[in-house]
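FW: tagging you since you asked about this chain on Friday. Here's the raw sequence from the shared folder, copied in full. Didn't touch anything.
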Amino acid sequence: MGGRDPWHFVPDNKRVPPQPEPWLAELNKTYTPQCGACHPPLDGEGRHNRWLNLTRPESSRLLNAHLARPAGGMELAGKDHNPPVRIFPDRSDPVYHALWQALEKGKAALLVRPRMDMPGAVPIPQERNFGKVY
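HL: got it, structure written out here
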């Protein structure tokens, strides 16, 4: 984690735990209070990774699941949901817009340090020790 992981980075290649990318911290400032009652935290691990599309942020399930159908979303809302599910009436909703802006920053961060399957990728030298017994 931290080498080519779009969610985390290791500051100055120091031997410290990976830190969340600034875009992820910004995303969580909006996501946690708005969505955290029903959804697990966004930390780069687990099944919710597929909720985010950093190459095409506007296609992210995170944005479209609770976007109203007339606005092009899926308008998913569970019945008898407590607390009530918030539906974004359109893309100008302030919460939707804050989530989208953070994902756009995630896209920019990914383009600065592209994965090896993306154009412009450059190998990042890292110290690895796969043979050590812990």
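FW: The beta strands are 8-9, 19-20.
HL: agreed, and Residues 8-112 form one domain.
FW: great, closing this out.
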